[in-house]
Specification:
- This protein has about 450 residues and is α/β, with parallel strands linked by helices.
- It is about 40% helix and about 15% strand.
- The chain has helices at about 5-10, 25, 65-75, 90-100, 115-120, 140-145, 170-175, 180-190, 195-205, 215-225, 245-260, 270-280, 290-300, 335-345, 345-355, 370-375, 385-395, 405-420, 425-440; strands spanning about 50-55, 80-85, 110, 155-170, 210-215, 280-290, 305-310, 320-325, 360.
- Strands 1, 2, 3, 4, 5, 6, 7, 8 and 9 form a 9-stranded mixed β-sheet that branches.
- The longest helix has 17 residues, at about 405-420.
- It is globular, with a radius of gyration of 21 Å.
- The two termini are about 25 Å apart.
- Residues about 5-20 and about 30-40 have low confidence and may be disordered.
Length: about 450
Amino acid sequence: MRITRTAAGRSRRVAVLATTGLTATALLLTGCSSDSDSSDDTSSDANGKITLTVADFGQFGYKEAGLFAKYHELNPNITVKEDTTADEKVYYPKLLQQLNSGSGLADVQGLEVGRIKELADTKADQFADLSKVIDVNEFVSWKEKQATTKDGKVIGAGTDIGPMSLCYNTELFKKAGLPTDRKEVAAKIAGGWEDYLKLGEEYKKKAPSGTYFMDSASAMYNAVVSSNAKQYYDENGEAVYKDSPSVEQGWNLAAEAADKKLTQGLAQFSDPWKAALRKSTMATVACPAWMAGQISVNAGDANKGKWDITTAPGATAANWGGSFLGVPKAGKHVEEAGKLVKWLTAPEQQAAVFKAIGSFPSNKGAYDLPDVKTAKLAYFNDAPIGQIYADEAKSIPETILGPKDGIIKDTISTQINNMEQRGTKPDDAWKAATNAIDKAIG
């Protein structure tokens, strides 16, 4: 997942956050929007020089890490140009149109995890098979399986992932009489998300006036569902979200949180949500790896040191987000594009991206490199994020993906927001969600 950059995010003065050189802005996974250096010229010139285009969305971090310039140094005959779309919801329909027409495609295309199953099922013949280009065993075991077709073809090489943690405001915890040490907090929620709500009830008893235990019940819902192998589809590709145990658990917990007023009911990344971070009115946020940047940038320098990070509730790790790089067969330089993808997703380059923007690697080899292994966030009381996220990443279950995962998740999240913000009854909200989903996915 990648979040569109705001004007405030671009202009805010940043402070150094980590021993690896991570900054607040670096950790904010956002869109680069209008400053794209796209090019329609992907042909070789008379001297054999090649221009490769990389089309992506949000912020993949390659320019920030200086990787395109470095690749040119290593391969003087190749220049890489990036074409970035800020919003993936704009990017994906355009990609589908280009795949259908067989024209306008970049040499390398970014692919969002929420779309990868649909592409693998319906568009695999339009992507080069990367199974002979990359070593799939280098990545966390479940990552490359997400981009693998039934006949073993790999349409995308893994970039980042979003291992789950819990971010919490130590100042608010202290005022509410709760422990602030990350190990003690982890022990309080070790039993799972049910324990997390129990901790929320403890918080509410002595909560500072005008504050809430969590930002959003829909965010908690996504975290709950993301920690399960079976989510919205079964092994046969059938949509089973209406009967999915993980969806039921997440929905019931979200309804309980809304009913008990444990949530501020703010849609994540909205202006009110950003203001709440700045004003310190919410005590916890479900925290995939990329979320730390959102908190640090939007909460601002005044709240530095008031936040910490611990492991997510329960024994089962979760993943929320992540992307891939694919090579369309219609590209003019398929072989060269494959080599670029292999290099960009290698451990050293993924570690460089993590250092530059905080996007956590999917290549296991990066976890032992200093820029990942010893990474800490000063903003979050020197939380050892390299260790926390690597441990989570290695134990995330293999998820069954479906072609319309993104639509189902977003529709359910909208109705959870309605329970929080409008007081919609759970039964009515669920009926509205299922009706909308059924119309959308057929």
